[in-house]
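ok so i was messing around last nite and threw this chain in just to see what happens. nothing serious, just curious
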Amino acid sequence: MAEKKIGLVFGKFYPLHTGHIYLIQRACNQADELHVILIHDELRDRALFEKSSMRHYPTGNDRLRWLLQTFKYQKHIYVHSFNEQRIEADPYCGGLWIKALKTFMAEKSITPSFIYSSELQDIQYYRKYLGIDTILIDPKRTFMNIRTSQIRQHPFCYWDYIATEAKPFFVLTVAILGGESSGKSTLINQLTNIFNTTYASEYGREYVFSHLGGNETSLQYSDYDKIALGQAKYVNCAVKHANKVAFIDTDFITTQAFCKKYEGREHPFVQALINQYHFDLVILLENNTPWVADGLRRLGDSAERRGFQHLLETMLHANNISYVHIQSSDYEKRFLHCVDLVKQLLVIP
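result:
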């Protein structure tokens, strides 16, 4: 019987991109068993984040999840996480790093035949310090000409190279708030169309139809956690499938404001979601557009509209949420203002 060929791939995968995936897929075709080792170090990884233009820090578990999700159907690919914090940072210096790595591989019963890499300089170092030969895969990057440093500095310029499972991490979220009949749903639909992406619709309106017979009069305190949970699912789905940015029609602050308005108290579950979900841009529309009665809305009186608008602003401030207040009642001016805000967010010239 031929000796079983065990392959090994190292990487920070910060973030995982198609170049990494190409390397791993080529390696797994050449090996009977392939072990992918994610190396992470909180101090070093934080420093990389601070030097990048990324808005959010990818933890070691974020990156591990991207790998596990990407290769979950290929059973001969095994993904591991190796924490090299407090070990010599340079993997080529020998010493503690090599000793710790060998101990780690022994614990995982990994006895590699080859290491697969796209870096020419890896050949001599892995041979010298690990005694393992390196097989190079596309070192000139003729197929996937991308480096992680490029993505960290300009993620949206290299969007097509980011792994599918990693893309939701980079998606920016824009929540548009406003009282009843403030024009936010129409505006969100327009923005979604021109930015060719996804949006999370207002779940509360659908809940009224599906659970309350299309009439809000039977709405009660016990409904608000269900509405908020439904809204969270819509947000998650929109982010998962978005093209760089996802638009959110009504956030959890608005749900909480309605709860306070109609029930006289706030809901702790809704507050928990306010604390958990942080949107990259929050836009508050002034409630000064013509009132349109659709059978669901109840706050058509001018005083009621102003009161609810004030409640939204008060709750945004109470939760330390920064927002852009668009006060124009002209639909075209609102639209163009929002387009400019989103372009600035995406750093589109």
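not much to say yet. The mean pLDDT is 90.
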